[in-house]
Write a structure and sequence with these properties.
alpha/beta, globular
């Protein structure tokens, strides 16, 4: 039986580990077949002072995705993961591709990582946030927002786990069955990742700081989606993804990048 493939549609950097350059090392380490489409290309995370951004034009995204649908490998597509977008107009061709893929593969899983901002600050065009909520959220089976992004999608303020759980539950319905929110402060003074489904919620205390490290959400989403595709129960998938991400986070020397490659290489030695 051919192995199931994940398509990751995110940003790319020459230096560091965010977007596809955070997710793909995880997939390779897990021996999970995965392919990538880069929405933007940068020398490094903008926090390094980089300014040049190459945004993949929407018509190019559309052409690449159209060609991909005609490849034999498309028959093995099991999941799609999306992350950062550079322009609102990029979302429409990606949404069409996901809709067509869901029609072709009844069991396809779409994970939306709504990379919009953090720490109370929106760092993309507001129109991207609106397009994501209108076009991509209704297609998602799983979303993996941070606390701030969950508040944007649910249009509510979130200060702790009670607010996060209520906001997550307000979004559940239709295709969306799982909200896995990260970096939520708890009444116990911890930072937790919380998975919410219709029948349950699961709080995972995390060895993390309140201010996140760039790329951590991309890594967590990759660990989680690969586990889901492999058939691991969701509670185990969430706990594994949170713990594995925390292990890599502990090695981060700055808030701008995680040592993803170094961490997974060492596990292979």
């Amino acid at each position: 039986m051919a192995q199931q493939v994940i398509l990751s549609i995110q940003s790319a950097v020459m230096h560091g580990a965010v977007g596809n350059d955070a997710a793909m090392p995880v997939y390779q380490h897990l021996k999970q077949p995965a392919e990538r489409l880069d929405t933007v290309r940068l020398a490094a995370h903008p926090g390094f002072g980089t300014r040049a951004v190459s945004v993949t034009p929407p018509d190019e995204l559309n052409g690449l995705l159209t060609d991909y649908r005609h490849l034999a490998i498309f028959q093995n597509l099991a999941a799609v993961q999306t992350g950062y977008f550079g322009q609102p107009s990029q979302i429409d061709p990606v949404a069409r591709f996901i809709t067509e893929s869901q029609a072709a593969h009844s069991q396809l899983v779409y994970l939306l990582d709504p990379v919009l901002g953090d720490g109370g600050r929106l760092y993309v065009d507001k129109a991207i946030s609106e397009m994501m909520r209108d076009r991509l959220l209704p297609l998602a089976d799983i979303i993996t927002p941070n606390q701030f992004e969950l508040g944007l999608l649910a249009d509510t303020a979130i200060t702790g786990e009670t607010d996060a759980i209520a906001a997550a539950r307000s979004l559940l319905g239709g295709r969306l069955q799982t909200v896995f929110v990260t970096g939520v402060p708890t009444t116990a003074g911890q930072i937790a990742d919380i998975m919410v489904r219709a029948e349950t919620e699961m709080l995972i205390p995390a060895d993390k700081q309140a201010s996140g490290v760039s790329g951590s959400g991309d890594v967590l989403s990759a660990f989680f989606l690969s586990a889901v595709v492999s058939g691991l129960p969701l509670t185990q998938a969430a706990e594994m993804a949170s713990n594995r991400t925390a292990q890599i986070l502990r090695r981060a020397e700055t808030q701008l990048t995680m040592p993803v490659l170094a961490s997974v290489w060492e596990e292979l030695v």
